[in-house]
Amino acid sequence: MARTGSRKSLKRLNTPKFMQIPRKHGKYFVNPRAGPHPARDCLPLLHIVRDLFKIVDVYKDAKKLITSGNFMVDGKVVKDIKYPVGLMDVLSIERINKYYRVLPYPHHKYILQEISEEESHYKLCRINNKTTVKGGHLQLNLHDGRNILLRVQDPRSPKEDIYKVMDVLKISVPEQEILKLLKFQKGNLAIITSGLKQDVGSIGKIVNIKKRYGPKASTVSIEQDGKSTETLYDYTFIIGEDKSEIILPKIEG
Question: In the chain, N or C: fewer CB atoms in 10 Å?
Answer without folding.
Answer: N
